[in-house]
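Minutes, project huddle
Topic: does the predicted pose make sense with nicotinamide-adenine-dinucleotide bound?
PN asked that the exact inputs be recorded in the minutes so nobody has to dig through chat later. Recorded below.
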Amino acid sequence: MFKIGIVEKIDNTGLKLFDNHSNFKYEIVENVSKDNLIKVLPKYDGLTLRVAKLDTEILSHCKKLKVISRHGVGYDNIDLNYIKKNNISLLITATANAVAVAEHAMYMILSLSKGITSYDKAVRSGEFKKNVSQIETYELYNKEILIAGFGRIGKNLIKKCKGFEMKVNIYDPFVDDETIKSLGGNKVQNLSSAVKTADFISIHIPLNNETKNLIDINMLNKMKKNAIIINTSRGGVINEKDLDKALKEKIIFGAGLDVFEKEPPDLNNPLLKNEKALLSPHSSSFTNECKKRMSVETVQNIIDFFENKTKPYMIVKL
Ligand SMILES: NC(=O)c1ccc[n+]([C@@H]2O[C@H](COP(=O)([O-])OP(=O)(O)OC[C@H]3O[C@@H](n4cnc5c(N)ncnc54)[C@H](O)[C@@H]3O)[C@@H](O)[C@H]2O)c1
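Predicted holo structure (C-alpha cells), as shared on screen:
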C-alpha cells in the first residue's frame, strides 16, 4: 500500500483515478504551515504539490518520500539539491498547462493594448464618450513581440501571435534557430538589444539564480515607451520595484502580471495601486479545462511512478 499526501486539494477528476487502484491510499493535507507539514508529511511515500514550499527542513523529515508530483510545471518551491541528493523523483504536468497560460498571456496583451479596463470603467461611470478618446490603445497588427523562453508555453503563444499578424522575436539560448524558424519566429541572441525594438515582451522562463531580476530598471530603460510587458512565469524574474517605477515614470506603457515576488503580494505592494498594471492572482492555468487536466496528470504521474510506467517527458532531470 502506497500512502500519498495530496498537499492542498486538487480537482476531484484526478483524485477519482485512485478509485481503480486499491494499492494507493490518499489523504488531503490542507494546512500547509511549516509546523504541520513537518508533523504530517513523514508518513507518505509520495506527495502531490501545488504552491506550498518544501524546504530542506520539511523534506529532511520525509524519510519515506520517493516522489513529488507537481500540480503544474514550475518547481521553484522545492529544494532541488535536497531531493536530488536523496533520490526523490520530481514529476510535472508537462502537457496540461501550455494552452491556458498562453491564452492568459494573450488576454493580458489584448486587455492592456485595447484599454479594456479603462473603457469598461468609462461606460459604468457614465462617461460614455467624454475623455474616452484620451485613452491610448494599440493594435497588435504588424507589431513586434519578444517571447523570452521558448518552451511549452512560448511555443503555444507564438501561434496566437501569428494569428494577429505580429512579428515574433524569440530569446531562448537553449532552442536552435531551425526550431524557432519552423514555428514562424526569429531567434535573437541578446536580450538587452532585443527589448529595444519590442512593442510587447512576454516572459516564459523559469525562475532561478540566473533569471532572478533579469528584467530590472536597466532593461526597462532600454524598452520603447509604448512597450507592454507580460509575466505569467514567476515573480522575481521582473524586479517589482523597478517595474512600478518604470510604469509610473512612463518609461513603458503597461504590464500584465499573473505572478509576484511574494504570493500573495502584500497589500502595500505599490503595483496593487498602479493603474498601468493589470493583475491576476497566479491563475493563468486555472481554466476549468486546465484544472481538470492538471489534476489528472498529477495523480496519473503518481500512479505511473509506483507502477514503473513514468512517461519520460513528465520527469524533471535534476
Ligand atoms: N502562471 C502560471 O500559473 C504558470 C503556469 C505554468 C507555468 N508557469 C511558469 O512558466 C514557465 C515556463 O513554462 P513552460 O512550461 O513553457 O516551461 P519550459 O521548461 O517548457 O520552457 C522554459 C523555456 O525557458 C528557456 N530558458 C531557460 N532559462 C532561460 C534564460 N535564462 N533565458 C531565456 N530562456 C531560458 C528554456 O530553454 C525553455 O525553452 C515555468 O517556469 C513556470 O514557472 C506559470
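Observations noted during the meeting:
- The longest strand covers residues 2-7.
- The domain at 2-96+288-314 is CATH 3.40.50.720 (Rossmann fold).
No decisions taken; revisit at the next huddle.
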